[in-house]
Write a structure and sequence with these properties.
Strand order of the largest sheet: 2-1-3-4
Radius of gyration: 18 Å
Number of domains: 1
Order of helices and strands: HHHEEEE
Structural class: alpha+beta
Shape: elongated
Helix content: 25-40%
Distance between the termini: 64 Å
Number of helices: 3
């Protein structure tokens, strides 16, 4: 009886960590996409927006780095590719408009679980947790021209 209860309890705790990690990635991507919308002035404004977004995303996922022994991957991208990356982050490859930014945050949960998994439990644990958020600058602004 104890073994059954323990396995069910451990499964619930594992699911809770996975759920929390996924919600953290969602928060990081969304907050970083909102940061891209903050006004930046002058030459290199788009790069400054990307750097600010990357800093926000890294701040939101910092607890995952501390617990999981690896850094989540973050990428801030435009139509022309990645403007800023950390931890090996990559763009999703989705088609973006000329005035659109994309933030992709991912964590290799299967390789670096937050709590150890039981043998055989790896089948129920996702290999990769990922979140993607986009933001449009609007008003005819373009991410590729460096205008703000």
């Amino acid at each position: 009886m104890f073994v059954v209860f323990f396995v069910l309890f451990y499964g619930a705790v594992t699911y809770g960590f996975i759920f929390t990690a996924q919600q953290t990635l969602n928060l990081a991507a969304n907050d970083a996409a909102r940061m891209v919308l903050r006004w930046q002035q002058g030459q290199g404004a788009m790069q400054a927006r990307a750097a600010a977004a990357l800093a926000v995303a890294n701040n939101r996922v910092s607890w995952l780095s501390a617990m999981g022994a690896t850094r989540p991957a973050v990428a801030v991208c435009t139509r022309s590719g990645a403007l800023s990356t950390a931890g090996g982050g990559a763009c999703s490859g989705g088609l973006l408009d000329a005035d659109q930014f994309e933030v992709v945050v991912s964590y290799a949960y299967g390789a670096h679980p937050l709590i150890p998994t039981f043998p055989g439990m790896g089948l129920a644990v996702p290999a990769l947790l990922s979140s993607r958020a986009t933001a449009k600058l609007g008003n005819g602004m373009s991410t590729s021209t460096g205008s703000s």
